[in-house]
Amino acid sequence: MNKGKLFVVATPIGNLKDITMRALETLRSVDYILCEDTRVTKKLLTHYQISKPTISYHHHSSESKIKEIAKLLEDGKNLAIVTDAGTPGISDPGNRLISIILKRDSSNDKDEIASPRYGVARNDTIIPIPGSCAVIAALSISGFPTDKFYFAGFPPHKNKRQKFFKELAEMEETIVFYESTHRIIKTFSELQTFLPQREIMLARELTKQFETIYRGTAEQVLEKIKKGPSKGEFVVVIRSI
Ligand code: SAM
Fold it and tell me: Hey, how many other C-beta atoms are within 10 angstroms of the C-beta on 72?
């Protein structure tokens, strides 16, 4: 049975001021901070003069690392998990760890970390400390209907791309997804092919010095990004039909 707590702490997506008082309080109070990249999180911790032992935890962390983390909780240690930016678990590490901890909690066998049994997991082990999230920040300024929306994560890199964009074209809700610098031009060429009429908002470098918002059809936005700066982190929002 876990005795410690795991706080899932959102950190800024750019502007370091975008962190909540509760997040800072939590990072100051826990015994260890699990970080996607300890070097990135050290910058945040240094900025806020927080000195705390960190543990690396990412998408490729081994089962033995997860057991080590679960053991810390069983020993009554409080942990925070953070990622490089934004909310853990949203296209970021966190979900697998949480799922395994909950299953361990409900299992009699502490070494059985992938038990399919549910039902008696304690509800007070995992605590959200909400804050920045690029998807939500972009949706909030889109002006598009958000009573329902579809979050598509990142478009696949290779052969499933056509299928991905064809499926998006069938959807009536507002759609939002992430894209990286390397594929933003390619993505807009594909949006031009598969969703030529839809109104799009492209949010680049949200909350950072060179924040830029482009609006228009895929063709119009593509023209703008080809002319302007096209490096950075991006969220694409497509208006519902
Ligand atoms: N968990 C994070 C969140 O809550 O926003 C998202 C992590 S995901 C691995 C990283 C992607 O989020 C980037 O490739 C980019 O598409 C988007 N992103 C993160 N920060 C951003 C920013 N400041 N401006 C625009 N997009 C951003």
Answer: 19
